[in-house]
Amino acid sequence: MRVIGIDPGIALTGYAIVDYKNGQYRVIEYDKIETLPNMRKSQRLFAIHNRLSDIISKYNPDVAAIEELFFNKNAKTVITVGESRGVIILSFVEKGIPIYEYTPLQVKQSITGYGRATKVQIQNVVKMLLNLKEVPKPDDVADALAVSICHLNNATSLISQEEQI
């Protein structure tokens, strides 16, 4: 199974391509889609869509896992990230890729077993699980890797339960 994990944003959208086979995670690619602050919002959203479409075509993921929005005191930020999520979701729908959404709490619980884990704890577990030489940076990219692992953990758990029935 190949999953693309996404941590949505307008300035930075983290993405990660992770395979899972024979009980092993294998990182294929992880990086960020970056837009410039001097671009109009519509241009930034279009750039995210175009870059993500290229990534989808290149890596052909089976499913997409996206981090859901969490409440933020800054309503403008929530709206802008929501618009970015919409463009990201559209990119997957256009390619016929199933989408799974996870809250930050679900991701933390899946990765560390503790829903209130810190960013540093998440990053260190991601590094260990994926046998990376260093903690992935920036945070958006580490979060995309974590969302990927979260989905794979949930998917393999469901497959295991179905096999027992």
Plain-language structure description:
The protein is an alpha/beta fold. The chain contains 5 helices and 5 strands; from the N terminus they run E-E-E-H-E-H-E-H-H-H. It has helices at residues 41-59, 75-94, 104-112, 119-129, 139-164; strands spanning 2-7, 12-21, 24-34, 63-67, 99-102. Helix 1 (41-59) packs parallel to helix 2 (75-94), helix 3 crosses helix 5 (139-164) and helix 4 (119-129) packs across helix 5.
Task: Quickly describe the structure.
With 165 residues, this protein is an alpha/beta fold. Helices cover 52% and strands 22% of the residues. Helix 1 (41-59) packs parallel to helix 2 (75-94), helix 3 (104-112) packs across helix 5 and helix 4 crosses helix 5.
Q: What percent of residues are in strands? A: 15-25%
The total count of strands amounts to 5
Rg measurement, Å: 15 Å
Largest sheet: 5 strands, mixed
Q: What ranges have pLDDT less than 50 throughout 5 or more consecutive residues?
A: 159-165
Oligomeric assembly: single chain
Strand order across the biggest sheet? Answer: 3-2-1-4-5
Q: What level of helicity do the residues show?
A: 40-55%
Tell me, rounded to a whole number, the average pLDDT.
91
